[in-house]
Structures are given as C-alpha cells and as structure tokens.
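Data card: per-record layout.
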Amino acid sequence: MSAPKPRLQWFDAVQSMQNSGDAYALVTVLGCTGSTPRDHSSKMVITQQEAFDTIGGGHLEHLVMKKAREIIASNAGTQKVEQEIHHFPLGASLGQCCGGSATVLIETFAACQFHVGIFGAGHVAKSIVTILAGLNCKVSWIDSRGDEFPLDIPANVNKIVAAEPCDELEDLPNGSDILILTHNHQLDFELCLTALKRNRNPLQKLRSIGLIGSQTKALRFQKRLLDRLLDQNPQDSVKEAAAERIKSIRCPVGLSSVPGKLPMEVAVSIVGELIAIDHASNQVSEGLSAGASSSENSDSQTNEDTALIAESLDAISTISSAARKSRGLAWKDIKQQLSGELNSKGQGTVL
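The structure for this 351-residue chain is written out next.
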C-alpha cells in the first residue's frame, strides 16, 4: 500500500493551479486583533473541490472557503482577477472562543479559457506542446498510439490515449482551438468531419480548426467534406451553410510569414496563429464585457457584438490565407491588417 501524497503548502498549490489553469482563490490574513488561531500574513489556497494550507481552521475558515468559492463560481467563463477584503469577528456567533477578529483578503483567479486540442503525437505536435507548455493555456493531447508520447508531459497538458480520437473531440470544452496533425489522412478527414458536425450547434462550437497539410490536401478535403455533409440533405441552402463551415478549416495551418519546414519552425508558425486568434477573441470579449457593465444592451446590440466576434475570427482566417498566397506577408503587416479589419467594425485589437 503506497503512502498518501503529502498536502501542498499554499505556495506549492499556487504553482500547481497556475500550471494546470484551474480556478482558485488565494486567501491572506491581513490583520488580527485579540486572540486569533493564526497570525497575520497566514495564507491558504482554495479551489471548488479542495483547500491547501490553513488560516486556523474552525468556522472562520469554513466561511472564508464558502465566500471564496462563491466568487470563483461568479467569475466562471471570464478572465477576471477579483480582490475582496472581509472582516470576521471571532466571537460566539462564529462558534469561536478566541474573542479576537480577523481581516482577510480573498484574491480569486479565473480558470484558463484558452483550450487547445491537439490530435497526433508526431514531431510537429511535440514541438507545439513544448511551446504551449510556457503559455497560459490548457492542452488536451490525443493519439491512439500511447508509445508516441514523451515520458515528460508538461503540467498544463492532459495526455489522452484514445482508440477513437473522434470521440475525444466531442468531449473538448466549448470554444476550444483544435489542431489536426495525425499520421493518417483518413483520420484527419474524420476529425475534420466530426468538428464540422459539432459546429452545427452554436452552443458547442469550437473556436478554430487547424489542419496540417498542403493546398492540394485542403482542396481535396473541401470537396470530400462537402459531399459527406450533403449526403442526407443536398438542398442549396444547406450546401451554402456547409461550404461556409468548411471554409473555417485553416489548411495549411500556421503563419506563412514564419518560413521553414523543421518541426519547431512549423510549430512556431502554428502557435503564432493560435495566439493571434486568442488575442483577437479576448479583445472582443473584453469590449463586450465593458459594454454590458456600462449600460443594458438591447437585443440588436447583443446580436451585433456576437457577429463581431465571428467577423474578427474570419478576419484572421482571411489574412492568414492571404499570407499563404503571398508567401511573404510580414507579421507587422498582419497586425496592421487585422487592426484595420476590427477597427472598421468599431472595435480595436492589440497583438
């Protein structure tokens, strides 16, 4: 029987939460008067399921944990960092006999919203994971070949050995960016088809779909995907909608302004494109939040804001396609064009 894992101290827990991208609260005792179970500067870390270290236990700690979890829940789906100060008298009302009082700071950190699903564990995928290990993102790394994964997996990466990778695609969080980089063209095709079918439901949409390959592969896949999507419903209106969804697949994936064919060079190109997509999406989301807090948006305004998010990501796709054709569009030109696209809709961006 193995020994139980030692409990993390608060500073180890902070590092663990930062690496995993999970939401958490850091609690600090700012000040104490009279008799208290712990001195000022005592800290603990709280998540929705666990608590690490202690500020003294008892009913005080119970109330602090409850409050922290309420704030974490209220910030779900955002990138906000909240700071709140609360004062607790340690009298009979809290079931404490210390007779003093404690003032605590509760800092809550939202869960990471940048989710990447990587299908395939080849050389390019390994290089991509190496880069993503240093970014604030959560990665699901999927392959049917368990022996292809390296021994050391970064803390923000969840290795998944799956006989049916398409089933894992269905389980990825909404708004994920996926990269299809497998060793098998037919599997690549089935993953693309699964992603497009999932994107029919606006409540389950992936944010972006990237496919490694050439322009020739892209054209072949486009025709085959359209045929498969229209198998059961060949109406013109359905055909137009399917064709638009297929265009959302970025193939070849990555920024052509980053040349080179070595795995790490290709990885830099692909991750650069992912970062651009994430930054543009965050800028639009922040603008949406600011507008919501300043006034109540009408239904029409909300629809316009939702459309703006889609148009912003379309702008990235269009610019990236132009870069692939020109094979020489500089990164600064991509930034300038993207800023122009978004500003024309009344919303700027920072890359």
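Known properties of this structure: The first helix runs from residue 10 to 20. The chain has three domains: 10-109, 112-253, 266-351.

See the next section for split statistics.
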